[in-house]
Specification:
By secondary structure, this protein is an all-beta fold. Helices cover about 0% and strands about 50% of the residues. It contains no helices and 10 strands. A hairpin with a 6-residue loop joins strand 4 and strand 5.
Length: about 110
């Protein structure tokens, strides 16, 4: 199982980012997936969960209405569209399978 996140970086408050997670080594289209994040000094937090068919099953209250998770099973890729970013969104973002495999993460820093 390999999960490779990309798309992170430094962004100003109010702007947008899209994260990607390229999956390989397992039948991606048969697995639910998750986006999680971990801010410095805080526990890892579940941000969004999406079923194998692309149905959203969870958004954290803190990101509802601002973040959108999606997937392209043909490309074995998971996405997280993040809008109206705030400094509290600063964290390392990870994609995970529902069986516990996790990528190396990508840093998102929201700051002026």
């Amino acid at each position: 199982v390999q999960l490779v996140e990309s798309g992170g970086g430094l962004v100003q408050p109010g702007r947008s980012f899209t994260l990607s997670c390229a999956a390989s080594g397992f039948p991606f289209s048969q697995f639910g997936m998750k986006w999680c994040r971990q801010a410095p000094g805080k526990e890892r937090e579940l941000v969004a969960a999406i079923s194998f068919a692309g149905v959203i099953t969870y958004y954290a209250d803190s990101v509802k209405g601002r973040f959108t998770a999606s997937r392209d099973n043909a490309k074995s890729t998971l996405y997280l569209q993040m809008n109206s970013l705030v400094p509290e969104d600063t964290a390392v973002y990870y994609c995970e399978t529902t069986t516990g495999n996790r990528g190396q993460g990508t840093q998102v820093t929201v700051s002026t």
